[in-house]
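To the team - adenosine-5'-diphosphate complex, inputs and output below.
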Amino acid sequence: NIGKSQAQLFDKNNSTMTFKDVAGLDEAKVEIMEVVDFLKTPKKYTDLGGKIPKGVLLVGPPGTGKTLLAKAVAGEAKVPFFSLSGSDFVEMFVGAGASRAIGRASGKRISTGGNDERENTLNQLLTEMDGFAGNNGVIILAATNRADILDRALLRAGRFDRQIHVELPDLKGREEIFEVHIKGLKMDKTVNINFLAKQTPGFSGADIANVCNEAALICARKDKKIIDKQDFLDAIDRIIGGLEKRTKLITPEEKKSIAYHEAGHAVIGLK
Ligand code: ADP
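Output:
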């Protein structure tokens, strides 16, 4: 039923993403290209008696480039690539309605109640995956930031039995991601990639993309023509502020300890 679903086809004709757009993640790229190689030359593996994996799960925090990586595969592999979100799956297999995450372990669901769309979707997905004969050239790539709560049945051999980990970028990774996202920005010489990467530990690729865009907006708001270092610093503050708002309430005790911590930064900064 894929033709009737919301699935979007990406192939060499319309996927403009390539691995060049995905900064860092070198190991993940190697692993994912291996999967592509399974697809293109299955014989190489099956002649040796090997079984081709059917599913690969990309695991890592939000905004680290899992979707980006999957889309780049379409551009690099030159194989047809269908993309679908979790909620589309529910509609495709079960009917319009629920758009909650699929694949959650039964004990840990939020809603209760008998005829659960989530459960039906999961079962259907498992059935479909089992339906693919071992080497018929279909591989399912999925992405999650909560591999810990997935139904074990999904991770069993013959389903998503391979996992590729996509982690938050380190200093070098952040430099590379900045490199990708400052392309096209009009900046002066005060902007230094290494400096920016040092200011943004814990930022995901998505956060960094945000910083770059926000810096341009801040610059425009000041009616300037060229983005400088201060615009980036303001953007970083803004993203951190934004991130803080999303987290839960802070107790007075936590606030006090954060205040000490931040005062520490201030002292070191002055020194
Ligand atoms: P995920 O699927 O892991 O939640 P996405 O792949 O959707 O994250 O990333 C969101 C956006 O963040 C991307 O469209 C891109 O602009 C930026 N981004 C994330 N990771 C990277 C990366 N490694 N290199 C370049 N850009 C990145």
